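Weekly sync, protein design subgroup
Attendees: M.S., D.O., the rotation student, P.L. (late)

Item 1: inverse folding check
M.S. brought a backbone from last month's batch and wanted to see whether the design step gives back something sensible before we order anything. D.O. pointed out we never logged the input encoding, so this time it goes straight into the notes. Structure tokens as presented (298 positions):
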């Protein structure tokens, strides 16, 4: 969904403006209001400074609201007002803030059913339902998988500073036949995994993660990434490679930092807390891994 939203933004008149994504289901409901609209200093315990919300950050661009069907009713009301009046108040604020954003909303739920059940505001539904795009599940458009696989492997190689991997024809055929319950995001994560874990430039069937090499076996029931890592280390040692610890630690730290910063919208203080590091440690690692150009606020 986010890939489609980014494509719409990239080919729109707002392409030069920011693209900001928020997953309404991934943020605790008591924090979502501040996340969207920002807050003033002292608005609540822990609000030690003014903070711009996602609406302000997306000014002049696009705000992608993912899983909007999970948005609490009280925030649906605030969102409706922003869409209707083009302005809002920060939490604890008394001065209205103008909002010039284009909203793209997505959900996996049936909003019409939620409206009938009283779980989603009907007026907000009609305000959002201007142009609807139905995005089929990945298993319903298997012809896209080879191109997506190529794209994500290239992106993962650039992101992780690694060699670009090339899947064997039998691997492409096998992956194209999987059900992909996690859709495009699952495929993207598999490509990242393969970029780190595949032993050579070519990807063979035995290089695939255990959970998709043996469908129906969850990583939470034995095996998992630690078992896969052990297998990878054994194969690299058998191939006569050295300095494996440096190679693995560097790649793992890259992934940890990039995912934590993506989760926090580039906020290093929050990312450091999530990773269990101090702010100075995170800053040092960002410099050591040459991630300054791809991270958020300093």
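Designed sequence read out in the meeting:
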């Amino acid at each position: 969904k986010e890939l489609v939203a980014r494509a719409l933004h990239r080919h729109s008149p707002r392409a030069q403006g920011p693209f900001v994504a928020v997953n309404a289901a991934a943020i605790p409901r008591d924090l979502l209001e501040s996340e969207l609209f920002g807050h003033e200093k002292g608005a609540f315990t822990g609000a030690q400074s003014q903070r711009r919300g996602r609406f302000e950050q997306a000014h002049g661009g696009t705000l992608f609201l993912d899983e909007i069907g999970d948005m609490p009713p009280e925030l649906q009301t605030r969102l409706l007002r922003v869409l209707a009046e083009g302005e809002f108040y920060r939490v604890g604020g008394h001065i209205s803030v103008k909002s010039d954003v284009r909203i793209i909303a997505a959900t996996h739920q049936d909003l019409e059913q939620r409206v009938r059940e009283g779980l989603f505001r009907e007026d907000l539904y009609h305000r959002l339902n201007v142009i609807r795009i139905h995005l089929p599940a990945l298993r319903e458009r298997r012809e896209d998988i080879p191109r997506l696989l190529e794209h994500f492997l290239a992106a993962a190689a650039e992101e992780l500073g690694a060699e670009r991997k090339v899947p064997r024809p039998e691997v492409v055929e096998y992956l194209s036949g999987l059900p992909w319950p996690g859709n495009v995001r699952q495929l993207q994560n598999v490509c990242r995994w393969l970029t780190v874990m595949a032993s050579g430039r070519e990807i063979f069937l035995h290089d695939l993660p255990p959970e998709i090499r043996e469908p129906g076996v969850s990583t939470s029931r034995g095996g998992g990434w630690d078992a896969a890592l052990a297998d990878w280390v054994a194969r690299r040692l058998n191939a006569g490679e050295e300095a494996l610890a440096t190679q693995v630690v560097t790649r793992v730290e890259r992934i940890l930092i990039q995912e934590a910063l993506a989760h926090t919208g580039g906020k290093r203080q929050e990312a450091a807390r999530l990773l269990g590091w101090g702010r100075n440690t995170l800053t040092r690692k960002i410099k050591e891994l040459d991630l300054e150009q791809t991270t958020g606020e300093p």
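Discussion: The two ends are 29 Å apart (CA to CA). Confidence is low (pLDDT under 50) at residues 215-223.
Action: P.L. to compare against the previous round before Friday.
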